[in-house]
Amino acid sequence: MKKLIALLMALCMILGVASVSAEDVAYERAEDEEIYLELLGDYDELMKAAKAAPTNDERFVLYAQAEAALLDSAVMVPNTTQGGAYTISRIAPRTVPYVQWGNDDDRLFGLVISDEFLTPAERADLLDQWSKAVAGEGTYDPAAYLTEKGHKIQSDYKLTFATAPVTLDWLNTSSQSDTEITVNCVDGLVQYNNLNQLCPAMAESWEVSDDGSVYTFHIREGAKWFTSEGEEYADVTAGDFVAGFHHMLDAKAGLEWLVEGVVKGAHEYLEGGSFDEVGYEAVDDQTLVITLEGDIPYFMTMLTYSCFLPICEDWYLSHGGVYGAEEYQAAFADTEAYTFGKNTDVASQVYSGPFLLQKLNPDSEIAVVKNPNYYRADEVTINSITWIYDNGENMKAFYDDVVSGVYAGSGLTEASGTLKMAKDDGNFDKYAYVSDTTSTTYFGGMNVNRGTFALESGAAASPKSEQQKIDTHTALMNKSFRKALAHGWDRATVNATSRGEDLKLANIRNMYTHPEFVSLENATTDADGHEFAAGTFYGEMVQYYLDQMGGEIKVADAIDGWYNADLAKTYLAKAKEELGDSVTWPITIDIVYYSANEANTAQAQVSKQTIEETLGAENVVVNLVETTTSADFYACGYRAASGEAGNFDFFYGSGWGPDYGDPSTYLDTFGVNGYMLKVIGVDY
User: Fold this and answer.
1) What is the mean pLDDT of the chain?
2) Confidence class of residue 20 from pLDDT cuts 50, 70 and 90?
3) 384 in Cβ contact with 156 (< 8 Å)
4) HSE-CB for 573 with a 13 A CA cutoff
5) Which of 97, 306, 409, 637 gives the lowest tally of CB atoms within 10 Å of its CB?
6) Shared-domain flag, residues 273 and 405
7) 315, 341, 357: which is the final residue of a domain?
8) Strands 113-114 and 355-361
9) Residue finishing a domain among 405, 434, 463
10) DSSP output for 237-265
11) CB atoms inside a 10 Å sphere around CB 19
12) Residue 389 β-bridge partners
């Protein structure tokens, strides 16, 4: 770009016209397809090869190669997972569905809550009982255990929320902040229990064809849809599952890509074909037949995610619902006629699950109550669940509410002050434990094709000049520069602002997929003749391929597998040589933060400090772009509707929890049309 400006200036001098300055050159967003193929083309080819592999084990090996390529590209930097924090809690462990994927771990109907904090010894006893029950050596009854210890079991549960659901239509959203509420009010075909066993839910039983491509589910008789007030509305039928799947495809809210290439005809329908060709059929009210594109070994694990949930077809159609993508978009735009699932009215939806949604005030309170007519009401241990709005601005008040019993528990963090409070009042010594980590992965995304530099309101405006915008884009398109930034971001020190120094590595994650998510069933040899033994974990294979590529990343959990100041400086020197005079240093990187949240502010400040100290402020300057409301913060990144709408250069407020039991549940999000491409600024 600098060479182009110089040529223009020289030409202007020859022609005797006014000169062109760098400030006259406006930043323009590049073509998404070109960006994607340049940065992730190799990744895409490896993903295609993996999906064509004849066996699970061969597919896992190829996925591992693809993930190594993704990590090596440095367009994203895995950061942390959930858990790994000091916690005090009254909740007995493993009393919600225990599974690494899907929505089931948000189902709270089986919670066992005491009136007192559990001690570490009590928690250890319960986990031992749980482990034995999983192994078939007895049962797990935490309520009986705690009662014997003098605890009293509570039947009402309160927790907090910062982002309210924007819809009550669980098939028109892919945001966990929406479905964590509604999933408690609707049942799917199957569910995991708290022992990690897949069990019947709305489907009492099922059969699979010999070739693995046709699944026949028998819907239980007597299951009902209820209004928010508990009035019976209709039977749950196989047709409601067909209606839900049809509606999900029409809504195109970020769920549909999960079923492309899985359910027969789904891709063709999304491209404009007929739903008659889609492999979803209600043979009668109690029989649902799903036909797949082929044998999908992990298909049953997919059924616990929201894209396979039903809707009450009669209710949907009577509240403005229609079928067909274009017809739906037109109907949805008519807010007077289309009233299905509006988050402003809990009566705009009907419910088939253990709870009924009865209150939703986005600025104060969300509440569900037990559905007494639920078909498994005897398994529901909680009478009500209430979410109270809390944006994290007053952590002392929150901690006081936890201690007094308003809330069941809390993580204890350095930045919020709750860790110090618990140490000062003795609760840390008596009750604190380190919470489990999970399969969710949070990561930082490099916005390689930025299209937004302020929200529509004018909030969160970037201070960049046009030339700085151009320079940042040019630098981020350079792999060496991305690696310099990735290896120069001290994630552990950033994490210490919330976890504390002694736990700063406890929840660090260094790869996208949980490293022990799957393992090889059989010994498997790759195309180059390298053999992996049976039982090899997925992360071990990713590490092997990174090592083969000469990469310096270490993928095991709970270690600092990325930050390396010397390596970051080496890549920076290489980037400066490769970029030459195409940019002006320093490169400016915008990081958006929420100033009312102490923890988020501290993370942003430490991110700026460590990047600038490692790479030198003469080379990289981090602009901390303030947002004063949580809505603006989320709009910049987490809730940005597209890659073009992302208002940041580097954003680490997004994450991915797996939807089913195969590595593709993570990796597809960075494939063509992948959901997480927006976090790197790409819409392709």
Assistant:
1) 94
2) very low
3) yes
4) 5
5) 409
6) no
7) 357
8) unpaired
9) 434
10) -HHHHHHHHHHHHHH-SSSGGGTTTTBTT
11) 12
12) 161
The length of the chain in residues reads 684
Residues contacting 167, CB < 8 A, separation 6+? 173, 178, 341, 342, 343
Residue 632 belongs to a domain with what CATH number?
3.10.105
Cα distances (angstroms) measured from residue 369 to each of 140, 226, 674: 26, 12, 36
Domain count, the chain: 3
Amino acid at the residue 605? Q
Q: Is residue 199 part of a domain?
A: yes
Task: Give CA angle at 683 (680, 684), nearest 5°.
Answer: 110
* pLDDT tens digits, 23-80: 568 999 999 999 999 999 999 999 999 999 999 999 999 999 999 999 999 999 999 9
The whole-angstrom separation of Cα 601 and Cα 609 is 12
Do both 475 and 534 map to the same domain?
yes
Beta partners for residue 281, in sequence order: 289
Whether residues 533 and 595 share a domain: the answer is yes
- Whether the pLDDT of residue 413 is over 80: the answer is yes
In this structure, the number of other CB atoms found within 10 A of the CB of residue 251 comes to: 20
Distance in angstroms (rounded) separating the CA atoms of residues 171 and 515: 30
Domain that holds residue 321: 176-357
Domain co-membership, 98 together with 150 = yes
Q: CATH number of the domain at 226, please.
A: 3.90.76.10
Tell me what pLDDT residue 24 has. 64
Closest alpha carbon to 591 in 451, 467, 463, 499: 463
Instruction: Give 343-346's long-range contacts (Cβ < 8 A, gap of 24+).
Output: 343/164, 343/165, 343/166, 343/167, 343/168, 346/168, 346/228
pLDDT digits over 216-271, tens only?
999 999 999 999 999 999 999 999 999 999 999 999 998 998 999 999 999 999 99
Q: Please report which residue ranges of 359-502 form alpha helices under DSSP H.
A: 395-404, 418-425, 427-431, 466-476, 479-488, 491-499
436: left (phi over 0), alpha (psi -120 to 50) or beta: beta
Query: Distance between CA atoms of 325 and 247, rounded to whole angstroms?
Result: 8
User: Would 17 be classed as within a structural domain?
Assistant: no
Instruction: Single out the residue of 117, 109, 125 nearest to residue 91, CA to CA.
Output: 117
Query: Are 542 and 72 contacting, i.e. CB atoms less than 8 angstroms apart?
Result: no
Neighbours of 558 (CB within 10 A): 15
Cβ–Cβ < 8 Å for 115, 408: no
